[in-house]
Amino acid sequence: MRVFTYAERPDLAARTGEVRDALPEFTGHGQIAVEHWGKLRTELPELQLIMWDDESDAVVGHARTLPAREAEGLPGGIDEMLERWFGERPRPEPDVLSAMVAVVDNRHNGRGLSSLLIRGMRDVAAREGFSSLIAPVRPTWKDRYPLIPMEQYARWTRGDGLPFDPWLRVHARLGAEPLGTCPASMRIEGSREEWETWTGMTFPQDGDYVVPGGLVPVEFRDGRGVYVEPNFWMRHPVG
Fold first, then answer.
1. 198-219 per-position pLDDT tens digit
2. Could you tell me the CATH number of the domain that includes residue 143?
3. 3-state secondary structure the chain
4. Rg for the chain (alpha carbons), in Å?
5. Distance (Å, rounded) from C-alpha 65 to C-alpha 67?
6. What is the mean pLDDT of the chain?
7. Which residues pair with 232 in a beta bridge?
8. What is the model's pLDDT at position 1?
């Protein structure tokens, strides 16, 4: 199993569509992400990762990162970091590298590949001269508890003291420290019809709805649904 940057292996980077993504469909419809996400690939290929199983010639995972600034406080989340870097305002003077997403093909779960991706992002951060890698983590099991506030859920632990959530636990085992809740990492808004397409549900009237894969409910007002996703910040040392 090998990890490359997009710049090192553009041929493999072109094959990210082979990775079977477990993220819910609606996460791909945030307005800011739709506008800027593709620029990570084209403008910062040296900071994006692809994981390749050289024995089977299969692309089994990928990760995206973006330089960010933390000196005045943690960023607002994925939307804010994308908008600050690619939007019309002056870019921040970066002092950390932030993970944006890390995806392992769900047909390869249980092989420890997610840890390889995180280590790969830490290696990129070190190579680029950053002191740490921060990550707005999307906890794997939070969608099972959408009514529990993220700040509570992220602090749940098992008997061994490690986080209750499997994805938070992977980060913790690799030495990441918890930093706090990212309350509005990504905003997704759509019409009732769009949300019905994205979720396979029906929304007969306005109100708050728990949807498959949602970390919090979707709020419908005047026929439009708004989902504001919280994440949880963690920091990895590098070097």
1. 999 999 999 999 999 999 999 9
2. 3.40.630.30
3. CEEEECCCCHHHHCCHHHCCCCCCHHHHHCHHHHHHHHHHHHHCHHHCEEEEECCCCEEEEEEEEEEECCCCCCCCCHHHHHHHHHCCCCCCCCCEEEEEEEEECHHHCCCCHHHHHHHHHHHHHHHCCCCEEEEEECCCCHHHCCCCCHHHHCCCECCCCCECCHHHHHHHHCCCEEEEEEEEEEEEEEEHHHHHHHHCCCCCCCEEECCCCCCCCEEEECCEEEEEEEEEEEEEECC
4. 18
5. 7
6. 95
7. 137, 181
8. 87
Residue 189 has a pLDDT of 98
pLDDT at 185 over 80: yes
Name residue 40's amino acid.
L
- Whole-model pTM: value is 0.93
Q: How many CB atoms lie within 10 A of CB 124?
A: 22
213 and 221 Cβ atoms separated by less than 8 Å: no
Is residue 204 included in any domain, yes or no? no
Report pLDDT digits (tens) over 14-57.
999 888 887 899 999 999 999 999 999 999 999 999 999 988 89
Q: Nearest to residue 39, comparing CAs of 116, 117, 91? A: 91
Residue 36 near residue 28 (C-beta atoms within 8 A): no
* Residue 194 included in any domain: no
What pLDDT, on the 0 to 100 scale, is given for residue 75? 96
Position 11 in a domain: yes
Tens-place pLDDT, residues 101-127? 999 987 767 777 899 999 999 999 999
| 113 domain-assigned | yes
